[in-house]
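Consider this:
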Amino acid sequence: MGNGTRIGRVRGLGSAHEGAHHWLLQRFTAVGNLVLVLWLVFSLLTLPDYGYLTMASWLSSPLAATAMVLLIISTFWHARLGMQVMIEDYVHGANRFAAIVAMNLFFVAGGVFGIVSVIRIALGGA
């Protein structure tokens, strides 16, 4: 069964056995995002006003800061998983590798920027 046969032409093109794990991660982060966004909306609705001092005071509580960091991580991870699927489906060749590297750099940088911003506000440095 060499390359000239039907089985030879498709050998090595089968499942990589990564789809189920990726699908589960996408669903877990979606549920996490739903819970955390509901928490965020409820928390913001209970604030007396939306001035900087009120928001900084609210975000300086450990519960709010932790939940906000979790929301940032979950949101950026969920977006990265979705974009990875789109890139893998529609980009081919060396462009795929470059697109995935650029995408990973973008989402890691965005997530780190968000987390550092929350930490600075929570610690009163902003």
In short: The chain is about 80% helix and 0% strand. The chain has a mean pLDDT of 90. The CA atoms of residues 88 and 96 lie 7 Å apart. The radius of gyration is 21 Å.
